[in-house]
Amino acid sequence: MRARAREPLDPVGWLALPAVAYLLFIYALPLLLLLAHAVMGPQGFTLAPLAAFFADPFNWQVIANTLRIAALVTLVCLVIGYPTAFALAWSAGWTQVILLAAIILPLSVGVVVKAFAWQIVLRRDGVLSSAMMKLGLWDEPLRLLFTETGLVLGAANVFLPFMILPIYSVVKLIDPRLNEAGATLGATPVYRFRRVVLPLTLPGVVTGVVFVFSLSIAMYVIPSLLIGDRFQTLATLIGRSFLFMRNEQLGSTTATVLLVLAVAVVVGSGVLARRLGRSA
Amino acid sequence: MTRAEQGATVAVWTIASIAVIFLLTPLVVTIAVSFGSSAIFTLPPPDWSFRWYARLAATRGLLPALITSVEIAALSTLVALVLGTLCSIALVRGRFPGREAISTFLVSPLMLPGLVIGIAMLQGFRAVGLREVWTSLLIAHVVITMPFVVRTVLAALSLFDFSLIDAARTLGCSYLAALRKVLAPALAPAFLTSGMFAFLASMDNYPISIFFTDAWTKTLPIQMLQYVEESPDPTIAAISTGLILLAVAALFIGDRLVGLRRLADF
Amino acid sequence: MSDFLVITRAAKSFAGARVLDGVDLGVKRGEFVSLLGPSGCGKTTLLRIVAGLLAPDAGTVRLDGEDITARPPHRRDVGVVFQNYALFPHLTVAENVAFGLAARRAPRERIRATVARFLDLVHMQDFADRSVRALSGGQQQRVAVARALAVGPKLLLLDEPFSALDRKLRETMQIELKRLLRELSTTAVFVTHDQDEALMMSDRIAVISRGAIEQLADPATIYHRPATPFVLGFVGLSTRISGSVIEAHEGQVVLSTPHGRLRASGSLPPGAKAFVAVRPERIEVAPTAGKGNQIELPLRDVVFQGSKVQLHFDVAEGDRVIVEAAQLPNLRIEPGARLRLSFAAADAIAFQSESS
Fold first, then answer.
1. N or C: which end of chain B has fewer CB within 10 A?
2. Which of C191, C289, A127, A68 is nearest to B24 (CA)?
3. Residues of A in contact with C151 (CB under 8 A)
């Protein structure tokens, strides 16, 4: 084997330059500057703004809110989305069309439309209230607007497709013969699900969970419309800081915290995915 | 089928039905409210009427916002398609280190909070002296659209059998003609789906657009949120219904051209 | 001794098409029976019904004295080796083989010992901790067989397990499988469309066409005494010389054909349109006294096949005469030459011609 001298850069590689350079300068660089600003004061490196941020118990509440809501939304999406992905994989003909349309159409419509619609649904005199009362589940009209439950419902509604589609893409790849093989080996349906189907769907579940969780910690429009000012998440705090309070310092610091959190989620999920892939 | 399997099947389809109703509820509610005669959002409405649609023409700022959104979305999608495709070709055909890192980097804007990216870009643009709102908006939106294009086109290209181009050339095509006749049709579905999703993502975007707005330049989501906050009445539902119709039309065309299943290939 | 596996009047239709038409089959304990037929004949459907993966429209399946027709597959004690092996991709080789035992909550020591034993039997001991994704087709095959046998099923079903392997490997695997099954005394039903495979491996063959068993017999009988034209045509090569019956007498008939009178075994009424079938290797070139049937035909093609030579002759439309010999006879063999051929009446069978 010849030792490789330094290879000249593959000319095809230059085609990547415009896109990469664009994102580097317009997207990556500003983000790095944001991070830098968070630790740069007039006298140089300083952790004062970050320290001040973490010293305020209100901010810890905000972080807790953000994580808690994101976890709940992800859980709801997982519980509803996992079986739905299977239904989508099993479906054919018109059933499949309906399922696909129900999943993709809301994606195409836009978050403002949906959040606004949920405002209407969650009101005290709204659709959900009357439906629940007609079904006999509630004794009196309840307002879900401006509550955490309402927020979780509304956010789950917007992000559900992002849980269903990754799981579906994995489920439809599972060879039906595997389930048959398990059965002929004497495994009960429950055992087959636990030991064959579930492990094979795990990569899709991880993708879906990461997607929904990342979207949930970053969402701004949905909490703005569905829960109001008394309940703050990192994103709404950032928004308020910049748009209403005109406190850019606080906004930048909070944005840094949110950014680090988001990156941690993505990196953590990558590690998890690799660990799962290795055990397969 | 054993009883356990039957039970599981029933459970799956029940939950799936709930999911469908859950997903379609906001759309149905919006359409219903838009045709109601009352200015308060009660359902079912006391009477049906078109008055909110009639108000659309008179709504200030709606048409300019719509035009702005469409322009920005179309142009940023176009730029993303060009830059993203060139880049995908490089990533699939090229031999250089860091290809996986580059593709992860290009898709990353999808995974990071839009609000944070918006702030960062605002501060970055300001630092270099760019204050023109419309241009800033366009430049920022390419960051939104690029990941969709790269993701989908890259996947399509890695499945493409490049020996087909060689085959075309042995049958008498020039290299460019081979690209046109063999590669372009194979990539057309990827262009279509990614272009569609990129366009919609740009039209729908709030967290980045909110930082690039002034009295004369607003995108549609910004404008709509303003209506909701200032004067909430079913006119907003009418606008929303219009958008829903547009989405249905886009889905229909998408299905005719590449099939709904392909659109779902996330 | 009553049969170990008894299929009675199994019937199945898909979308209006009758895939299985009331099939009866009995398999003795320890026997190796092949279901042989072209694709779409229903053999895989029958197999899946026995495995419990498909419910029949009618009919019953009895195994070891018990009616298992209504039982789900995981309670039938019937092992299956699938055509594409269906190994669990997320498990290692050892975990795959252990799967059935683990599902039955066998004690860990027993699982370990059994897995080791069966991996040994299929010569895959060194691969125990490898991922199945890295294995070749033949290796996956062997793991699939080990996996199915490790739980000690009463019956093993194999659905064209060797169809994806190349010829050399296939032959090795066939011999190994037979040896393994004999060692374990396992009853087996084997689905294939490859007649050489069926002839080589089976104690008995069920030739299936269009949802019905045309003949169930040991390989020699299937080959030398095919019961129907379909079996004749599907298993091995055959000549076909058409004519009409002029004499019928005690299990033998005489046909008048364009190439002369031919005598063959069969029971057909005089006047019936029929054809004579002989296996190519039972025809001799050059006239030999006492061989009964003699005809003279122009040679069309010589096909060299290594260990043997095939001679193809020009005959009437729809007919075929092929002769197989170990080597070329010492005559002028050239396309166009007229050669004298002879074969015994005992080697020839007369079948009724299908109505045109």
1. N
2. A127
3. 185-186
Nearest CA in chain B to A180: B1
**What is the CA A53 to chain-centroid distance, rounded?**
25
Domain membership of residue B74 (yes or no) is yes
Three-state secondary structure call for residue C11: strand
For residue B200, pLDDT over 60 is answered with yes
Confidence of residue B45 (pLDDT cuts 50, 70, 90): low
The pLDDT value recorded for residue B104 is 85
Count CA atoms within 13 Å of residue C110 on its CB side. 11
For tokens 């759309």, name the residue. Answer: B27
Query: Which amino acid is it at A272?
Result: L
Q: Whole-model pTM?
A: 0.86
- Locate tokens 């011609």: which residue? C353
CATH number of the domain at C241-352, out of 3.30.530.20, 2.30.30.220, 2.40.50.100, 1.20.1250.20? 2.40.50.100
pLDDT value at position A3?
47
Query: Is residue A129 less than 8 Å (CB to CB) from chain B?
Result: no
What is the mean pLDDT of the segment spanning C283-308? 81
Judged by a CB distance cut-off of 8 A, whether residue A93 touches chain B is no
Architecture in CATH for domain C5-234: 3-Layer(aba) Sandwich (3.40)
CB atoms within 10 A of CB C301: 11
Average pLDDT, chain C: 89
Instruction: Give A29 to chain B, closest Cα distance, Å.
Output: 8
Q: How many domains does chain B have?
A: 1
First to last CA, chain A: 33
Q: Which backbone phi and psi does C121 adopt, to 5 degrees?
A: -60, -35
Interchain CB distance below 8 Å, C89 and A196: no
* Structural domain for B148, as ranges: 62-217
C-alpha to C-alpha distance for B249 and B252, rounded to whole angstroms: 5
Where, residue-wise, is CATH 3.40.50.300 in chain C?
Answer: 5-234
pLDDT at B204 exceeding the cut of 80: yes
CA distance B148 to A159: 17
Q: Would you say the ipTM is above 0.90?
A: no
What Cα–Cα distance (Å) separates residue A140 from each residue in A129, A148, B41, B44? 8, 19, 19, 18
Contacts within 8 Å (CB) and 24+ apart, B73-76: B73/B141, B73/B145, B73/B199, B73/B200, B73/B202, B73/B203, B74/B199, B75/B138, B76/B138, B76/B141, B76/B142, B76/B144, B76/B145, B76/B198, B76/B202
pLDDT at B90: 87
Angle at B85 between CA B82 and CA B91, to 5 degrees: 140
- Block residue for tokens 């149905």: B28
Q: Which residue has the tokens 């059933």?
A: A95
Provide the pairing of β-strand C212-217 with C204-209.
antiparallel
Cα separation values, A144 from A78, A128, A148, B18, B204, Å: 22, 9, 8, 19, 25
Domains of chain A, CATH where assigned? 58-232 (1.10.3720.10)
Beta-carbon contacts of C148 under 8 Å, excluding residues fewer than 6 positions away, are: A184, A185, C79, C80, C81, C100, C156
Question: Would you call C84 and A186 a contact, using CB atoms and an 8 Å cutoff?
Answer: no
The chain C residue lying nearest A189, using CA atoms, is C74
Indicate whether B261 belongs to any domain.
Answer: no
Burial tier of B118 (Cβ tally within 10 Å: 0-12, 13-18, 19+) = buried
DSSP C250-293: TTEEEEEETTEEEEEE----TT-EEEEEE-GGG-EES--TT-SE
**Nearest to A25, CA basis, from A36, A33, A15, A14:** A33
CA distance B80 to B145: 6
Interhelix angle for A93-109 vs B235-258, to 10°? 130
How many Å separate Cα C152 from the centre of its chain? 25
